[in-house]
Prior knowledge:
By secondary structure, the chain is α+β, with helices and mostly antiparallel strands.
Amino acid sequence: MVGKVHAAATAHGTTVDVQNVGPESDNVIEQLGPSGHGVFVIEAHTDAVPEGDRARWLNGDPFSGEEGWVSYLGHDEVEIEVGVERYRARIRPRMSKIWERFRTERRRRVIYGRGSFDNKGCVASAMLAMDALAAASRSSGVELGGTVIAAYTADEEDGVAGVKRFACDADSWLAERGFLSGPRDADGMLTEISGVALDGSYGWVPVIGHRGAVQLAITTHGRAAHAATPELGANAVEAMSRIIVALADGTDEIRAALADVLETSLLGPVTLAVGSTIAGGGVRQVRFEGERVVERAGVNAIPDWCEATVDIRFPQGRRYPQDSEDVKNRVVEVVRRHLDQHARSASVRHDVRELVWGPPVAMAQNFDAAAKLPLIREERRRAAEVLGFEPELETAPGGTDATFMIHEAKIPTIVELGPAGALSHDVHEFVEADSIVEGAKILALLAISRVGVAE
């Protein structure tokens, strides 16, 4: 992927750097325009999640990049067509709103395959924008008034190492070139640099925030016994099932216990989702060989341990951003207490450990305040010129690289912006082809709005 990205960026005639991130990953960063008082960063990650079961994709090839069509059927449902094959899927209500309120057509061209929406469509939009800006500058002889940077970053889906190396570390690409040493406002945010984190989204609708996340591992510790004499053991899986039910049934109680510290009007309430669950008692490994294969030593033992992960999403606190870690700690404390009260077992003990967490992101405390931000006003104006309507503001259900650009690098950043599509991290992922081109136009115009042209 990096070789193709580097070759394409180099063809633009911009200044292109390669920044090593890991043993097998690199960032590609291109820069256009002179150093000045305005800097605009377009950031898009280049990696994608694994393809999963290849046989479930319409043509058996999740990396085909085939062209097809998507038709909106109403009620948050679309039909995807690739060749003669069809598949119906549900999409996010936020995307349905775009179909219903702002589009007259009900069928659009798509590019189908793993990573098309998350995040190759975004990479393509950024590259087309940089190519257009460079070509326009050459043909007109007019230079930009500041610097436009496109960062194609690695490893967002696994550790977000790419954006940190680009923007956050002490020896990051931006820091080493002095882009993070400019003046700051009262909140500590840089005032001469701004940016946008591109991610598969709702057709260039500016996303202004997303909830924070803390992921926990819950382990139950029981006692093994022969399955013929279960009374001699303590079943860790049964104990885990009670924990999972307690979490599912206790969401309202957990939310009520957090009401005094959370501001839910922008990003919504706390949610809990049980993720992967692994049971002991003979399970050696789970692997995929065209289909899922569970390797067991046997099924005649009472499992003595079980582990499940829980993903908890939470909005900003009432003193955001200063209280983000305190809010996370309070969330974990409330969940621990809830399990102690509702899922404690006399024979099986459980423990809860924190895996990773990320803070919530909010460009403002509410939609009205966010709409007044210059960066948001300019994006909506430029989007209206290209799309024919001014997009409303949205929030995102999941995190983006903007989390780190805002909280660590202190760069005012649109939290998410990207082409229309659907089914990221799922089979039948697609991105709308025309939306990629529309986005390139919007990004190029927005870059000009942010840095101006040389006098």
